[in-house]
Amino acid sequence: MLILDGNYIALRQGDSDTRKTWGGEPRNTEKADYVKQLQEKLSAVKAYSGESDGEFGPNTAKALRFFQWTAKEIGLESCSIYSFNMSPTGVYDINSYKELDKWVSHKAVVGGDLVRIKESSFSNIELGPYFKKIEHPNINDNEFVVSLALAPHLVNMNKEAKKYGIIIKLNQTLRLVNTVVSGSVVTPAKKSQHFIGHAIDCNLMDGDNWNSSATFSQGKESENAKKFIASVKAQLIRWGGDFQTLLESKDDHQ
Questions:
Q1: pTM (two decimals)
Q2: In what residue span(s) does the Peptidoglycan binding-like domain sit (predicted)?
């Protein structure tokens, strides 16, 4: 934090540690890394993915505005901090400095860990005919979105599906907030895991048997589907399709 004559100097676009320009003006002080420190903090809260080079360029300003907007509109709910009510200006003023420090100290992040995955990445996982695609310009028709934490489990599920001759037909992965949720929420989760990309809704196609939720509720699932489910449950992947209390997954954020 740069303080001159008792006043905090707000960093802004155009500032540079190399040129010792802070607050829009060159300073006759010792060399420091105020901009770099800001970039590192923005990286820590997942708002900035660029290089921490000490140059306050447009990407740093954009990342700061993103953080400011998130802090104002959403707040740091996990520790009851709702103090930030400033506009997303992209200027690193004293209020932004204090708020960003709170987020860093609580290891909070402004973004999630969602990833786009191509359907072609798997041999036995496909998008179903009625797959509900997220309406976003950066998501292609042959892609689906899940949490990065779920991705390795999908690899294992694909392996087991291939072993038992099952095609996993995806109906839905990530759900939009404020949409109606139906289906089971598996203990110990208290909310739909689709909201954070930790779940998939699917059918287990075994020949002509789609092994849908109705199939399971009627006890008409195929033997291969039963074997597949048993194998993935043994890997601590919780399964809601058989309507039982299942194992707790270490990746479940509830």
A1: 0.60
A2: 33-69
At 148, the pLDDT band (50, 70, 90 cuts) reads confident
Q: Which residues of 7-163 form beta strands (DSSP E)?
A: 7-8, 21-22, 25-26, 114-118, 125-127, 143-147
Amino acid at 43: S
> What's the rounded Cα separation, in Å, for the pair 105 and 115?
26
Evaluate whether 130 touches 171 at the Cβ level (below 8 Å).
yes
Banded pLDDT at 253 (limits 50, 70, 90): very low
Task: Give the C-alpha separation, 87 to 4, whole Å.
Answer: 25
Q: Regarding beta strands 125-127 and 167-172, do their DSSP bridges make them parallel or antiparallel, or are they unpaired?
A: parallel
* 153-173: b (≥16 Cβ within 10 Å) or e: bbeebbebbeebebbbbbbbb
C-alpha distances in Å from residue 101, one per residue of 98, 105, 130, 188, 193: 5, 6, 45, 32, 29
pLDDT tens-digit series, residues 25-54 = 999 888 899 999 999 999 999 899 899 999
- SS3 label, residue 108: coil
Copy the structure tokens of residue 34: 């105020």
Please give the domain boundaries of the chain with CATH numbers for all domains: 3-105 (1.10.101), 114-233 (3.30.1380)
